[in-house]
Amino acid sequence: MTKNKIGVLILNLGTPNSPSVKDVRVYLREFLNDPRVIDIGRIAQLLLVNLIIVPFRAPKSAKEYKKLFKIGGGKSPLLTYGKNLTSKLKKLASKDFNVELAMRYGSPSMENVLAKMRTENYDKIYIFPLYPQYASASSGSTIEKAFKIINKWWVIPEVSVIGQFYDNPNYIKCIVNRAKEFDILKYEHIMFSYHGIPERHVDKVYLDGKPCADHSCEDEINSLNANCYKATCYATTRLLVKALKLKEGSYSTCFQSRLGRDPWLQPYTDHTIEKLGKEGKKRVLVFSPAFVADCLETTIEIGEEYLELFQEHGGKEIQLVPSLNDNDDWAEGLYKIIKDKL
After folding, report:
1. CB-based contacts of 338: which residues, under 8 Å, 6+ apart?
2. Are 69 and 18 a contacting pair, CB within 8 Å?
3. pLDDT per residue over 236-283, tens digit each?
4. 6-165+327-341 maps to which CATH number?
5. Taking the model in full, what pTM does it have?
6. What architecture does CATH give domain 182-320?
């Protein structure tokens, strides 16, 4: 019997091609025009994004991306980590499956990479968004676009999705390994900061008509909230707290990067940072478990903007625990996650 030829497409959110205002504008326009990212009426979204948000946000974001690309030696760290990780995965999985990398927004595009995979005549293709916790704006959008592209093929192979892995032991172990690089006892507080999403996004998860707030998302995973972003973020925190043996009261879960005036998941990271500074805390260690690769939201937002905010309110040091990036243990852990699904 012939062995199945398997292709795995790993995906991350994306990055501008350069930190120029032009390229950042192109990236933001693609990102923010996604109906799963800004889920308001389509006409209202197009007007809001293209006439208000992008024209004003692009120049500001370009300045931040210039800092990030400078740190990355003139390249996007997220893309560099992605390429390195893919290369390591290819070697680990050479006898089991092939691996390709694409970005939901920007390059390498899903269209181009899937077009390449089409020519390989795979028997099976696995779509694997590298988001530990499911959210419609990240995982949902990525999966939807992959199927839209593949649905146009004349010959469609067997296609499967590798879903969220917020509680996978390989993922948790790799974050704990990053924590070992630091003396946790040196820090007065530990923060687990996740990317925020609007509250209405998690409310839409539930088909019983009740909001997220009525589903014990901060305390447990149950049959109703297993695909709720808020619930899985808190579940990740609980697993890391247990693995790191943190004491109750020494840590907090919060959400960053909100946009607009609508209520987003709380508590907000910037408000928590400000509060810790006012309480007299001097040193805070920050994890970003929603990100598997360092990017603008970790390196710049936490590493620079939140540090400045903390110091303005009496704090001294915010230490960001690096993401999993392209570390060898993460490549091995990711290989195991994929192999288990296969």
Report:
1. 8, 89, 93, 97, 126, 128, 162
2. yes
3. 999 999 999 999 999 999 999 998 889 999 999 999 999 999 999 999
4. 3.40.50.1400
5. 0.96
6. 3-Layer(aba) Sandwich (3.40)
